[in-house]
């Protein structure tokens, strides 16, 4: 079942078009990885999907409902949640309060405080700690937990490993791997680490200068095709594996 | 001296009610409302109207006007403030300065330029006092005002700490975009904050009209007092507002014992002293930048207690 469909999406910053005519879809329970060099348009695409950046044209359809014109909070209520780059926690509130806020304002569903703590056990002893005092890895776990609390149909994870130590990244992806099999939530992951994106995702999109340059399943895509698409060495047409 | 101290503390209750709304607007909406004092006077005139024209008792009038002021705040945020805030830092200042002028001239047109007071409508409460064992008299109205200030701030603290609306207000105050990404409608939160702020301004105006004479152009002076109390106590801190109000009230009370003009001057000097001290610390010791100057906590908050609780697991 298709959970999210993006049709001919265009978004930009003033005169600069950062996302050009992007179309793709994600199925329930699928993990879609989005890779690309800096400036490829990944974060603008994510921010447009989440509603914090306006789309110039195109449409975003979530579970059969057009959400293109909804503000971010309404999209969360509809089922799109984002873990933003830099975590963006409420730093003077406790872990419990950060989770509570999303639970109170999101969709109702299977994710509750207890199920989130079960999936992210690192948070259990930190519930009453103010998030401003947490480490990078702990903050990232709170950000993921906060997004889960809104019971998303589609979970957007923007550079979740950025700024974390290798040990923290390993732990984080173990926790994310545990989420993959739970329910129908689709995940879209922006990841700078190519190997990580390829091993974690069911399907990968490589963006170049705002366009999709390559799309396919990781086990089918050859390394040369990915490298070419990533660096724009052979990007005349969109390649499908 | 003790008398001046007690009178100053009680006066701080009025300043706390007046300043809490200004602090809330800046803390949550990041909006400095230069019409805040005029809105307080507008609230006082509405209470006077309800008492003198509609024949309501003063306390019923106050209880009726506060929700009306809340609605006015909600409407102002929805129609005016939210639009101007997108225009940068200067536009809200100019807009609310203009709103203040409109309110002043509107009140002048409707109620005339004569000074008015609620004092003659509240019986002997405007001058009645209690005698303390140390031979000092404390006015009943200032004590009631102080008690209302503590009750209002305490209620607000409870709402902010333990309610869904309070958590949404704190989250939006911390990061409006992240709040939206957590499902909070930041526009609705800003409207709620503006409603509370203007309701508090109206309540403060009513207490001012009970203890003093008001006129349509009294708002800017009240704005200055509110701003001083907020900065002394620290913007965004509810109980800091009460502390700031008390410090200002005590300074004014001591100033008044020196000379009649000393009432306002002493308050301004204490405000300048606090601001100067914070400027010195912010620039010479790099303590918090502009947030430090305004008495706001530096971000992120990291107390030793919090850090002790944090485990080393997953630290990057």
Average pLDDT figure of chain B: 88
CATH domain fold name of chain B: ABC transporter involved in vitamin B12 uptake, BtuC
Q: In sequence order, what are the helices and strands of chain B, one letter per element?
A: HHHHEEHHHHHHHHH
Strand order of the largest sheet of chain A: 6-7-8-3-9-10-11
Oligomer: heterodimer
Level-1 CATH class name of chain B: Mainly Alpha
Taking all Cα atoms into account, the compactness measure Rg of chain B is 20 Å
CATH superfamily caption of chain A: P-loop containing nucleotide triphosphate hydrolases
| Proportion of strand residues of chain B | under 5%
* Sheet having the most strands of chain B: 2 strands, antiparallel
CATH architecture of chain A: 3-Layer(aba) Sandwich
Q: State the total count of DSSP E strands of chain B.
A: 2
Write a short abstract of this structure.
The complex is a heterodimer of chains A (241) and B (316). Helices cover 33% and strands 27% of the residues of chain A.
Describe the model:
The complex is a heterodimer of chains A (241) and B (316). With 241 residues, chain A is an alpha/beta fold. Chain A has one domain (2-240): Rossmann fold. Chain A has helices at 42-50, 72-78, 95-105, 113-119, 136-149, 166-180, 194-200, 223-231; strands spanning 2-13, 16-27, 31-36, 57-62, 65-66, 80-83, 154-158, 186-190, 203-208, 211-216, 239-240. In chain A, strands 6-7-8-3-9-10-11 form a 7-stranded mixed sheet, with helices on both faces. In chain A, strands 2-1-4-5 form a 4-stranded antiparallel sheet, with helices on one face. The longest helix of chain A has 15 residues, at 166-180. The two termini of chain A are 21 Å apart. Chain B is an all-alpha fold and 316 residues long. Chain B has a single domain, classed as ABC transporter involved in vitamin B12 uptake, BtuC. Chain B has helices spanning 2-29, 36-52, 58-85, 90-111, 140-162, 164-174, 176-181, 186-211, 219-233, 238-258, 262-284, 289-293, 304-309; strands spanning 129-131, 137-139. Chain B has a two-stranded antiparallel sheet with strand order 1-2. In chain B, strand 1 and strand 2 (137-139) form a beta hairpin. The longest helix of chain B has 28 residues, at 2-29. At the A-B interface, helix 2, helix 3, helix 5 and helix 6 of A face helix 6, helix 7 and helix 13 of B.
